[in-house]
Amino acid sequence: MKNDSIIERRRLIYSALARHLKHDRLLEALWLWEQKYALTSGLELRKFVSDIVLENDSPEFKSKLYKSLTKVTYFPGDVELLPDPYDAMHQYRQQCNGAFKYIAPFDNQLSKPFSTIVFQRMLETLLTQIKRENSIAHEKLRQSLRSAILRLDMEANLKLELTNWLQKNSDEMQLIYPEKFMSAFINEIYVYCCNEFGPIKSDKILANSIEDANGLEEARFFNPKRLL
Amino acid sequence: LKGIGNITALIIILVFSPGVNAQTVGDISSNMDVVWITVAAALVFFMQAGFALLEAGMSRSKNAINVVMKNYTDACVGSIVFWLFGFGLMFGSNTTGLYGSDHFLPTWASPFDNAYILFQTMFATTAVTIASGAMAERTRFHAYLIGAIVVTGIIYPVFGSWAWGSYYEGQGWLAKMGFIDFAGSTVVHSVGGWIALAGIIVLGPRLGRFSPEGVARIIPGHNLTLVAMGGFILWLGWFGFNGGSTVKATVDIGLINLNTHLSAAAGAVGAILFVVIRRRPVYVSTVVNGSIGGLVGITAGCATMEPLFALITGFVSGIVVVISARLIESLRLDDVVDAVAVHAFAGMWGTLAAGLFKTGDLFNGDQVLVQLIGILSAFAWAFPTALVMYWVIDAIFGLRASPMDEQRGLDYSEHYEIGYPEFQGEILHGGKQQI
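YS: structure for the whole thing
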């Protein structure tokens, strides 16, 4: 599956599983995929299938899921794509308030992707350190980042959420951001820091943000260094 | 020891026994020449290790592998290109005075010629590697190597043909004028330094090297022990660089290498005294660069001046290095190892000093004028051509690494390697597939 768009990949996974899983279970599986597997390689399909099958599911059923996912992974052109289930996923998550029924080990973590949690923590630590160094530079950075977001090539809803987060610095990020984008955004901050404080201090600021994010439970599933 | 004694006895018997004729003595002398030039070439080659250590030590740890790779590979690529093309352009028959026109791909040469080609190849690789340190920490590897090919294939040999050509027939226009540059203060070092200057202009400074107000920020190297070791190795190699330029195993080598050593020592002392008088801290890099400045400075006149003048040349070279490094910085140019100050500026001064302090012809105005013409022509040729070369490379291939690559370090982004895995951790990028 070469397509980089998260929407396209979500549609492929959705299309592959829709024939086999019922509505609620399907949406929970999609949440799991987004937070844990969306940014990893295709070779983790087997793990994904193991995560979504239940104790009473037969081995044949597991095999069917795996075959179906393999097909969309390696022959995406042969699959008739269903529409993006994004709205349905959000609606479902709000309805059940994050307490999922089928995928028990992840009940409390499915509210948002690990990568987003790590990304947000890194941003918070970076901005806090910059504010501590120089509050004027911090405010200038926020303005500069807002214009940087407009320049970056990514989906509109992601841009909107990130801009809102920067403006308020209170709401939590919910969406899944492509890794490439998260790295580019952190690099924007690094370049800004280099100009303001010099490369040595900037390297320290970046290292501190990694160390801080490493303290998160989610860092076990998404290593913060991937965003450097 | 017994073996060496036997060889010595054999040489004495061959030279002094009544049956030995002049032909045999001549053969031994020629053999000694070849042996000396080959050993000197090996010493000059060892300077590559000195450059690699010095430049890697002055760079941040995340770029150390990239620096070493550039040094290693420009020596490889440069050697091949110079043998294929550069040698003929520099030392081939030079009827116009502007370039050599034969002896490309020199094959089936005499034993002495082979040694000479080897020795000159080492000089070419020295000239090309000077730019790598100046351009460290933000240059893309492949783009740099393309530049190295052009430098060893065209820029360096053309100027070399003016000052040192030809080895076969005709003479370069500067050589005809009586330009003194015994081992290459200008031909090798200033030319390399001007190429480095062009490179850092096209590249621009490293991220954050200067504040938005233009104030320079120090970016310390990651290992100053490597810097000092690099300095020692370069110093050692220089005995081959200058001593070997006799291209004969003669008694002159003693004076040449004494001058070389005194100038290097005086260069370090000159740099130290200058910064102490200005009440600035004495950095290791300043001392090492001062001594290398002394070496560069004496390279032109090491065979034609007395030791006292070699000492003065070196002392002034050390001061020139400190002042010109400050000048380069004030122009917001980012030279990681001060290569332009050490090689271009100290090379200029050394070439001038060779004219000023020529034994038996001190302070001869005509000679000084010729030296100035040589200095200016080196700049007028090497700087603009290198500037155009790097602009073209930048436009076609991209010379400057991206900000993301600078953040991650060129070790990872250019070579997918990490120089210090114990500290920098694992590689997490690249090779990832999206499902």
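YS: worth flagging: Residues 430-435 of chain B have pLDDT under 50 and may be disordered.
IM: good catch. Also The two ends of chain B are 70 Å apart (CA to CA).
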